[in-house]
């Protein structure tokens, strides 16, 4: 294999956050251990948010501490505001992900503030980021918004213009929050972004499979030069703040596709499949994907 991609496992955050019955912390740690053992090194383990808004994420500090005992695991955490970013850093986070939306309507619904307010918070944060801390910027609703519909590419580029100069070395992810993006749109937007901001070296794609285009959109991003891809084991997920959005593209599907293409992921698919199978049985979870059922009768 001459090419490679990095898969960021987001199941423990995006996959778990909308599940009602609380998943015991010990069970979450066991999933992190098994995912790491399968070769998934970059894992979004949870988010620092209000426990009233997302009770499932209340144990993220405990999970972050437990990651010190999981060899090879690089834990990431999502933060929606300056206040929660500071909490994350105080708890030892070394790879936080700051999220804001291109759409003002979604940003207000998600983080209760105007997009410009979130931009100002991000700019303050990166100006004082502790040494040795990496950061990722997630731009939600880059392709479609549940409240405003299809998002013009120019709006995404304009927002990036406010954010990129502050820290060009950040990892920047364009997110298809509702799953309504389509491959031509994905390839076009990433092409525009990479041309406008050549100083950014780490672009990422976050796809949802609401309309069955998640894997096609991952491939479109790859064709446009993206080499970092989010995915969720068992296809678990769905944004609680984007009505109608269902699960993320399944990690096992993404791995299978890239391996068939001759693209290395560093992930042991045979070790991942049992984890994905168990993920489908989490009470209250919403799973998706096809590869695990094709590879084993245990998840028929």
UniProtKB/TrEMBL annotation:
GO terms for molecular function: hydroxymethylglutaryl-CoA lyase activity; metal ion binding. InterPro entries: Aldolase_TIM (IPR013785), HMGL (IPR043594), PYR_CT (IPR000891). GO terms for biological process: ketone body biosynthetic process; L-leucine catabolic process. This is Hydroxymethylglutaryl-CoA lyase. Residues 5-273 form the Pyruvate carboxyltransferase domain. Belongs to the HMG-CoA lyase family. Its EC number is 4.1.3.4. It is an enzyme of class 4 (lyase). It holds the Pfam family HMGL-like. Keywords: Lyase, Metal-binding. The keyword Lyase applies. The keyword Plastid does not apply.
